[in-house]
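#onboarding

Welcome to the new folks! Below is a worked example of what a typical request in this channel looks like: someone posts a single protein sequence, and someone else replies with the predicted structure as tokens. Don't worry about understanding the tokens yet, we'll cover that in week two.

Example request:
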Amino acid sequence: MEKNDSQTGSKKSILRSGLVLSLMTFASRIMGLIREMTKASFLGTGFYSDCFSVAFLIPNLLRKLFAEGSVTVAFVPTFKSYLEKGNDEQNHKETQNFINSTVTLVSFLTTCIVVIGIIITPLLMPIFCKKPIDTGAANYMEQVQYWLAQKQEITYLTRIMFPYLFFISIAALFQGILNGCKIFAPSGFTPVLFNGIVVLGTYLLAPHTDNPARAMAIGVISGGCVQALFQWPFIRKTSFHIGLTSLRKTFSNPGTRKVIALVIPTIIGMAAYQLNDAVSTAMAIRAGEGISSSLGFSLRLQELILGIFAVTIGTVILPDMSGLAANEKWKEFNDMLIQAMKIMIVISIPVTAYSLVTGREIITLVYKNKMFDEHSVELTLGEFRFHMAGVVFIALNRIIGPAFYAQKNSKLPTLAGIISFGANILLVLVLTGHFGGKGIACALSIASFVNTVFLFIFMKKLGTMETRRIVISNLLYALKISVMSVIAALPCWFLRPVLLNAFEGHGRLVSAGVPAGLLALIFAVIGVLELIITKDEIVLSIMKRGRK
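Example response:
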């Protein structure tokens, strides 16, 4: 009876916290979409858009390593273990010392990286900017001038945005503290501020800078700073505060040493995974103008879907799973993991099916404006379809990963990431020459599938997860949802040309938006009816708690 109460409490915790964070993340993704619409309107898929995409890649890649990836993943379980000890004076003092040491560590390391990065940025440009080869072509000098201008602009933009790494790493650490204390709303709202500042900065500064890309870069650094500052007052309302300590105390603190031990293999695995972006971007910008930008626009739409659900559930379950693992409640641990994975499946597979049918209308509605023309739509559409094919695997990876980290095991997901990285690099090199941006998008989806497979394989090595039950339960559920999604998508496929003809010639909001909206309604009604008729366990569970 006690276990059932504990399990019910854990599930209610996921639902309650997930609802708050989902609302915040939804607002964040909407603002992120507005940010990308602003970028599309001001930059399109041309020269400055490609330059901005490459320039933002480097600090953003490091952000994923030091902020969202390793800092949060390594810090939260360790911080949770301190909280599990109790709240007496001695434990509180040890926890506060751990926080101060970690803040000092992150501040010191990211400052060093930012300074080094700004200095060596010009040395990185040959990776992304392919120097023209003199073949006697009539436009050779034009190619050289384009190459020089591209190098100069990317270097300038990268140097503007490099300090973003420092601010966002501190913001991620603040988020870890708040999430460990079961406070999700403030850190869920900070991306809304970030995206809003980027949009506002672009509109306000674009008329006063040499090009809109520089205005957007200034918005990025300003938004990162606000993300950190906004969370500070909420931390002060807890029993902890933010402070610095000496480097000697930092590296001798047992909690911080444990974080470092977790961070190092995690960084290796995350680096392998995130280098996919670097290699893909380098190949894309070499493949032709606009391909790098269109891949970015396609990925933003994919991340809109992933961000609302995958990141939300992954963030919410990490503290709860860490607590269950610390108390060795493995039955509840496995039940929570299975439920979270099924939630991802019931969301990601139907959304993928709908997106494959209405991809052109979605891209037209969201992006087509000013600099983003029909050519940009066509370029982005081909890549979007291949990106969406891998959504379910990326979503599952962001759920399975925390299950390893909650048990303080970062080596196995690291190894899975390295294998996935190798697969992606190989596929990018093979497919890009023949299929351009579509090949790069396809490679990422296949690599995500490979990552999922190896995470399932590595579950057996832990001995705490019921691998067979997890795999079979979720595989059967995925097959069921896939069949239902195809059934719901078929009427939409046949009705699509009829609706497009009916609303043609009324501007993109009507000609693309109305058909996409009506098809979404039809798809959703059919899908929900299917779930209710089959008495789907996840939907019934959500409806039951919703009534409460």
